[in-house]
Fold L-aspartate dehydrogenase.
Amino acid sequence: MLNITMIGCGAIGVAVLELLENDAQLRVEHVIASAGSEALVQQRLASFKRPPQVLTALPADARPDLLVECAGHKAIEEHVLPALERGIACLIVSVGALSELGLVERLEAAAARGNTRIELLPGAIGGIDALSAAKVGGLDSVDYTGRKPARAWKNTPAEEVCNLDAIDQATVIFEGSAREAARLYPKNANVAATLSLAGLGLDRTRVTLIADPLSEENVHHFEARGAFGGFEMSLRGKPLQANPKTSALTVYSVVRALGNHAHAISI
Ligand SMILES: NC(=O)C1=CN([C@@H]2O[C@H](COP(=O)(O)OP(=O)(O)OC[C@H]3O[C@@H](n4cnc5c(N)ncnc54)[C@H](O)[C@@H]3O)[C@@H](O)[C@H]2O)C=CC1
Ligand SMILES: O=C([O-])CC(=O)C(=O)O
């Protein structure tokens, strides 16, 4: 049985816990919530048979087998870096946080000191294995387009580009590098960062973000070209009801990754 600590317990976290509730090999013992939100998180977990303990920091003597981050960019600095220093292996969904200059190097150094590892989860996208293999032979270009319903861009800089309540057709709200996309859209451009880190890097991966009032799906499309040939994929993700910015596949990606640590065969 693997003992897991989960950072953040919002739309992704609760859905992951639901899927793991009867799992014999994976057990989330602790959930780390933002200070002040413990009661709310406890309330979200009230219907669970054996709810995890809700804390605001990992106790000094806790030694989980794995820590999984499902919280947001700030949680990497706050919880993942110190856990790595303590030798705890970490799985991350807020991959866009790694767009901050120097953070990749700091994570690597912390993991080296703790003699442990960091796993960046594919989350809402697929094909990361193929893209990252293609990188070995050399990539020429990677172009990514993220298209989400207009409501998914609420409370983001997209509101300065167009009136999200009034647009009646697909509207480009961002064009630029993956680094800039991840900085401006921390809750909507983690996929852009993941594709970049697997492929051509944050500065050379071209990103287009679209608010589409006619779509009910989070559509992630990318095209890669290089020595290997060419490859394109389109993933039409269903958004989570609890958070329209987030695709359901992200939840399944977390459960798959945790399962791969517990099962004899990983796939
Ligand atoms: N890689 C991918 O494909 C995707 C990654 N994400 C990432 O996952 C994050 C979480 O997504 P959702 O669960 O949908 O968001 P959410 O907003 O529903 O839940 C996040 C929860 O984490 C808590 N939280 C925030 N900062 C925290 C901190 N420093 N320490 C402890 N708890 C903290 C919040 O209070 C909230 O309860 C997003 O912010 C995004 O960075 C989301 C979707 C796809
Ligand atoms: O869940 C999604 O569709 C993707 C997402 O929010 C992100 O890339 O940050």
Observations:
- Residues 7-13, 32-34, 37, 70-75, 78, 93-95, 123-124, 186-187, 190-191, 194, 243, 246, 250 surround NAI (ligand 1) (CB under 6 Å).
- The longest strand covers residues 139-148.
- Residues 14 and 44 are 8 Å apart (CA to CA).
